[in-house]
Write a structure and sequence with these properties.
This protein is of the alpha+beta class. The chain contains four helices and ten strands; from the N terminus they run ααβββββαβββββα. It folds into two domains: 66 residues; 158 residues, Mago nashi protein, CATH 3.30.1560. 32% of the residues lie in helices and 27% in strands. The strands form two sheets. Strands 5-4-3-2-7-8-9-10 form an eight-stranded antiparallel sheet, with helices on one face. It has a two-stranded antiparallel sheet with strand order 1-6. The longest helix has 29 residues.
Length: 262
């Protein structure tokens, strides 16, 4: 695994962003500053309208100043967005001892009397393996079951962390992609360390986008990397989830139900 780093990653910069592009916006800002600067020459301080009192601030001048300042602010914001890296990387968990617990949710709801179906896992990292228990439920947790002694082998855990650390997030609002009704999946994984609690979640009907939640802030992950990372874990757990929820449905509703798999 890569060395631990907290550095930000700058990626996917458009081709038209060149030194000349920055110089162009820099000159625009200088022009605006010079435009609103007040000349010390007496003849230039006189109002154009002789009926205006030169000792008062007149609305048209104040409005012009506000427009100019707002224009400068917009260009400064644009430059700061271009100069600062828009993409950030997840922390690299080089020492798996840093990770204390991993929580997973693999839920589904839709137009069905047994919905929603929930699968929730709480797993501790022990000797490179994820060990813990799962809780399955249907019909708004009216019927539940618990499965203990779940173990995800170390090679699966390693593959998950190596993949999830490739994800880059942006300081943009989170959103989901949905293109059908009566099918609402929800998947999430939370990584707990001694000093942090990070959740990556999605309710999209596609494999992206995802939302990263950490320290009370939300960020957008506009790629399928979290999906691919989580599949390492979920594929190992899928048969158990299917059997447990189908067992609950048979027990309480007396008919078979084939789970919609994502």
């Amino acid at each position: 695994m890569s060395e631990k780093t907290d550095k930000f990653v700058f990626d996917n910069l458009p081709e038209y962003i060149t030194p000349g592009f920055f110089l162009f916006y820099y000159l625009i800002i200088l022009k605006m500053i010079s435009f609103i600067s007040i000349s010390k020459e007496p003849e230039l301080t006189k109002p154009c309208n002789p009926h205006l009192d030169p000792n008062k601030v007149h609305p048209q001048y104040a409005l012009l100043l506000i427009v100019a300042v707002e224009g400068i602010q917009k260009h400064i914001n644009l430059l700061s967005y271009l100069l600062l890296p828009p993409f950030f990387s997840l922390p690299s968990y080089t020492l798996l001892d840093e990770v204390k617990e991993v929580r997973i949710q693999n839920n589904w709801k839709g137009y069905n009397e047994t919905a929603p179906h929930r699968a929730e896992y709480r797993l501790k990292l022990i000797n490179g393996e994820l060990v813990g228990e799962a809780r399955f439920s249907i019909t708004y947790k009216k019927f539940t079951s618990t499965v203990k002694d779940i173990t995800i082998p170390s090679y699966v855990v390693q593959a998950f962390f190596e993949t999830i650390m490739q994800a880059k997030f942006e300081n943009k609002p989170c959103y989901w992609i949905r293109f059908m009704t009566d099918h609402y999946p929800y998947q999430s994984v939370s990584i707990l360390t001694e000093t942090s609690f990070t959740t990556i979640a999605s309710s999209s009907q596609d494999v992206y986008p995802w939302c990263l939640i950490t320290q009370g802030q939300k960020y957008l992950i506009n790629s399928d990397i979290p999906y691919r990372a989580l599949q390492h874990l979920l594929q190992h757990l899928e048969s158990q989830r299917t059997d447990s929820i189908n067992s609950l449905i048979k027990q309480h509703f007396h008919y078979d139900f084939y789970l919609i798999r994502r």
